[in-house]
Structure to design on (261 residues):
């Protein structure tokens, strides 16, 4: 079982869309998938239709990690542990627990033989829940919009968070490698400039690497989400929409291939 956390300390960069589409594609090719919505704003929880909702969600998992099997809902595109912390109380609760940052990892140890891949969608902010999602992961992926605010937040936010966690390595903490992926890429010169900058800086920075795959800017992702299907299953209504859907679907498939999933 491989655990993949989609992280960024900036909101609105595409973490949920990336999580859902990677998970949905892999599920459609018969991989056993679990999605975990670790964001108090539960976008991933409603991305795909629940066909068998559980009575419990992430709150109960963190309260009692051994109860995780009772907190798993089913969708058409993999299983899901939904977010049920609308008031964002888990962050402060985890701070008060000595093992707070390790509870998600502990819970997932009960599922080692049940899934091929676990995808954790996270909040665009710092906190113990984000730390728990990082420390439960084997791999970290950060979607990066090719624009100045997101690039700056990668350097001063996401990478800073990972460095602070790694500073506790004497406690046995090991932070996985971070892979950046250019997300919502358009054809503007500014976008290409930031892509070049990211590639150049990552080659001289052992804190992260840039993936070769790039996810295009496309309304098709929103249209697929409105139908509660991954973009790889979305059928366009006309030739132009079908062309865009195929391009976006190919990007998700290329990403899975590059990640060797």
């Amino acid at each position: 079982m491989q655990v993949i956390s989609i992280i960024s300390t900036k909101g609105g960069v595409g973490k949920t869309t990336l999580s859902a589409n990677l998970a949905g594609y892999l599920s459609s090719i018969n991989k056993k998938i679990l999605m975990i919505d670790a964001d108090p704003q539960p976008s991933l929880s409603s991305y795909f239709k629940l066909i068998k909702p559980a009575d419990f969600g992430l709150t109960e998992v963190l309260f009692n990690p051994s109860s995780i099997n009772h907190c798993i809902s089913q969708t058409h595109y993999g299983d899901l542990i939904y977010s049920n912390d609308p008031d964002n109380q888990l962050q402060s609760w985890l701070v008060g627990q000595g093992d707070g940052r390790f509870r998600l990892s502990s819970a997932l140890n009960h599922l080692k033989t049940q899934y091929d891949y676990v995808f954790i969608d996270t909040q665009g902010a710092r906190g113990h829940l984000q730390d728990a999602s990082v420390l439960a992961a084997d791999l970290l992926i950060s979607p990066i919009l090719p624009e100045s605010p997101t690039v700056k937040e990668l350097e001063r936010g996401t990478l800073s968070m990972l460095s602070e966690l790694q500073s506790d390595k004497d406690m046995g903490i090991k932070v996985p490698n971070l892979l950046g992926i250019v997300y919502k890429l358009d054809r503007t010169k500014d976008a290409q400039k930031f892509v070049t900058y990211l590639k150049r800086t990552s080659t001289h920075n052992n804190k992260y690497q840039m993936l070769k795959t790039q996810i295009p800017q496309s309304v098709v992702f929103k249209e697929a989400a409105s139908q509660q299907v991954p973009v790889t299953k979305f059928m366009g209504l006309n030739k132009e929409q079908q062309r865009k859907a195929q391009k976006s679907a190919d990007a998700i498939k290329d990403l899975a291939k590059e990640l060797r999933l």
